[in-house]
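Q: How would the structure tokens look for this protein?
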Amino acid sequence: MACLQGTGKLQAVEVEDWTQPTIDSWRHSIWVGVYDPWIVVFKGPVVWYRTMREIVTLERMHRAFDKGLMQYGMMKAVKSTTHAADQQNSSRTLAKAQGVKSPG
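A: Here is the predicted structure in token form.
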């Protein structure tokens, strides 16, 4: 959170840790495929390979979240008014350089 606020481009930064509410969904995704594999069965070996690779990835992600090595969450912020004004000015400058009439 400090790294987002330290840029000066964002204000009212909020973060939420969604690891615990979502941790079961990683393994659930694997089991959905185990219970209904027919989507993948008839697609051929390339799809089987990709599916197996995804199973390994999802399991590794579950373990990383469980051990605290990874965190899943949501970040919410509002652009600071000075940054928004800077962006608008740079858009106008770019439009002038490209010969496009800007809307403001």
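The longest strand covers residues 10-17.

The mean pLDDT is 79.

Upvote if useful.
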